[in-house]
Specification:
By secondary structure, this protein is of the alpha/beta class. The protein has a domain of 171 residues: 3-Layer(aba) Sandwich (Rossmann fold), CATH 3.40.50. It is 41% helix and 23% strand. The strands form 3 sheets. A 6-stranded antiparallel beta sheet has the order 3-2-5-6-7-8. A hairpin with a 2-residue loop joins strand 7 and strand 8. Helix 5 crosses helix 7 and helix 6 packs across helix 7. The protein starts with a helix and ends with a strand. Bound molecules: adenosine-5'-triphosphate (ATP). The site of adenosine-5'-triphosphate (ATP) has 16 residues, from helix 2. It comes from Dyella thiooxydans.
């Protein structure tokens, strides 16, 4: 029997960079990290940084802790690191907890004081010195990151692309998280029935009903986000990768568009019982990019994969600024080794035009950086501002 995803059609469309579409480097105002304080994160015991509203460069030898500073900023917006497998490794060896504190100045003048702490497995959040949910805190800070793992957005598994999509949806539509949790709860229940080899229709029906309802809303929000992202993405791709020709986007909801998810869940129970988990639904969604001159992923060089990922991140930041009125904070890990000089210069120029706050790392100061950049020397878990 063929895998269900092979049967599912991708929705496919070719976005036009329309003149009304927001430029992906919208001139505007940006969210800024004024202060970043971390304790017991990787090689850092305690560090407190006063950041520049423009470019902040962290320079130092390998293993000095540069990426870890970016990770701290990223956690405030994603609730996880951008490095895979970093879940437990974030806490400094020998310590039981870590803390990240930041002051975030919004474009409208609001100042948020964000605190995230991890004691063992769970994160706790504080907003303006009061306890709050992690979701509420993540909604107050937006960080996009371009790092050595970013090409996985193009060449990696679907999970990476779902995360990208859902981060974009969540930051505009805060109800998304609750929908997603509802879906996950019902999925867990159905998977538990499958693992216990239950086959009674009455046991499955309520969970499949719940899955169907939340899936329809998740799918609607994801489609709407991709529809809004597409013209901005077309523009950023045309700037960074003009040689690849017209862009097309594909979206797969995770189940067939013929019939409801509820019907398909009922008819896939036999297969799901043998696999021990639910094989269709929005947890299997995916989206992909193709180009006229590179119709398959395998046609892209590693550098082109990175540039495509960068175009996606810039488009996401541009759309965020259009919809939320402020540019996210941009982290770039190891700029010099990720992009050639021409693309480094193009990226730096775009971020300058957007007036975005940038946190960038390198073993040396990248030549393309503005001489006004604030430079920090990082070595053995100590970050020192250079005058
Ligand atoms: N949980 C941990 N506890 C203590 N030290 C850690 C922990 N995890 C990582 N480290 C150390 O912290 C440092 C973190 O390195 P990080 O990746 O931030 O450095 P970097 O300056 O970005 O390096 P590179 O230029 O090689 O990418 C490394 O020396 C690493 O060995």
């Amino acid at each position: 029997m063929r895998e269900p995803e092979a049967l599912e059609p991708y929705r496919h469309w070719t976005p036009e960079p329309s003149p009304d579409a927001p430029a992906f480097f919208v001139v505007g105002v940006a969210m800024r990290l004024v202060k970043l304080k971390i304790s017991s994160l990787r090689c850092f015991r305690d560090v407190e940084l006063e950041l520049s509203p423009g470019i902040n460069a962290f320079v130092g030898p390998n293993g000095a802790g540069k990426t870890s500073l970016l990770e701290a900023a990223f956690v405030l917006s994603h609730g996880r690191s951008f490095r895979s497998g970093a879940r437990d490794a974030l806490i400094r060896r020998g310590e039981r907890s870590l803390g990240i504190f930041a002051e975030v100045l919004h474009a409208d003048g609001r100042l948020d004081r964000l605190g995230m702490g991890k004691d063992g497995v769970h994160w706790q959040a504080r907003l303006n010195f009061e306890g709050c949910s992690v979701a509420e805190l993540l909604g107050r800070c937006a960080v996009v990151s371009f790092d050595p793992g970013s090409h996985a957005l193009i060449s990696g598994g679907a999970e990476e692309r779902r995360r990208f999509l859902d981060w974009g949806v969540f930051h505009v539509e805060h109800t998304f998280l609750e929908l997603w949790r509802r879906y996950q709860r019902a999925l867990k229940q159905r998977n538990s029935l499958l693992r216990n080899k239950q086959s009674d229709n009455a046991l499955f029906a309520p969970w499949e009903h719940e899955l169907d309802e939340s899936a329809a809303n998740i799918d609607r929000l994801r489609r709407s986000y991709l529809d809004r992202l597409a013209p901005v993405l077309a523009q950023s791709v045309a700037t960074l990768l003009p040689e690849l020709g017209e862009l097309s986007l594909r979206y797969r909801p995770g189940w067939s568009e013929h019939g409801t998810l509820r019907e398909q869940l009922a008819s896939s129970r036999g297969r799901d019982l043998s696999k021990g988990h639910t094989t269709i639904g929005p947890h299997r969604a995916d989206w992909q990019i193709a180009f006229a001159h590179a119709p398959a992923r395998e046609h892209l060089s590693r550098g082109q994969e990175k540039l495509t990922a960068l175009a996606c991140l810039l488009a996401q930041a541009g759309l965020f600024s259009e919809e939320r009125g402020e540019w996210p904070i941009v982290c770039i890990d190891d700029l010099a080794s990720e992009l050639d000089r021409a693309h480094q210069a193009a990226l730096v120029e775009q971020l300058r035009v957007a007036d975005a706050q940038v946190l960038v790392t390198g073993t040396e100061l990248p030549a393309s950086l503005d001489p006004q950049a604030r430079v920090f020397h990082v070595e053995q878990g100590v970050a020192t501002p250079l005058l």
